[in-house]
Structures are given as structure tokens and as C-alpha cells.
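Each record in this resource describes a single protein on a pair of labelled lines. With that in mind, the following record should read easily:

===
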Amino acid sequence: MQKFHLVWDESRYALGIPSIDGEHRGLVNLVNELADTVAHGCDCEKARQKMEKTLDFASGHFAREETLMRMHGFPGLEQHVAGHEKLLREAGNLIETLSPERANRALLVTAFFTDFIENHIQHQDRA
């Protein structure tokens, strides 16, 4: 297992909403693919492509998650949406700083995604 790999654990990550759980699994897989890319030396262009793919997937997932929350009158929706927007903004900013001269940024972005996914699913999404 690589440093930034996540292992899907039903008891930790599953929320009992099949569509959301499936997308969360997809995010975990994308972040693990990114971690594999970065662990084998930073081909910055390949890492950037993986990061952008992960960010695009997360953006679509957040939109679908927010729609479900609206439909069900989730009380913390505004704060939850703000957390999604913050992730997208910060990850996008980190990706923009990636370059061959700053290859260590790839590790930072990978750690950022890993930490966010783990904490967000377990705490904010579980609510």
C-alpha cells in the first residue's frame, strides 16, 4: 500500500446510499490511481491529467450530492456546499502550481485529495 492510498472500508465510508457510495468508491479509486502515478516518479503531465480527471469527477459528484441534499432538505446544505467549493478551489490552485521544477506539488495534491476524501466522507457526508 502506498502512503496516500485509501482502502475502501464499508464500515468507515459507506453511507447506505448506493449511488453516492458508488461515486465515493470512484473517488477513492481515482485518488489511488493518482497516488500510483506520483509514486513512480512525477511525470508532471501525466500527474496533471490524473489530477484534473479526479477534480472533474469530484465536481460532478458534488453537484449530484448537493441535488440529493436539496431534495431531502438537508439542514447543513450551505456549509456543505461551501466545503465542496473550497476543495475544488484549493485543489485547482495546487494543480496550477505543478511543474517539472515543482514536482513535489504532486505529492501535496495527492495528500490533499486523500485527506479531504477520508475526512469529508466520514464526517460531513455521514451527517
The mean pLDDT is 86. The longest helix spans residues 44-71. The chain has five helices and no strands.
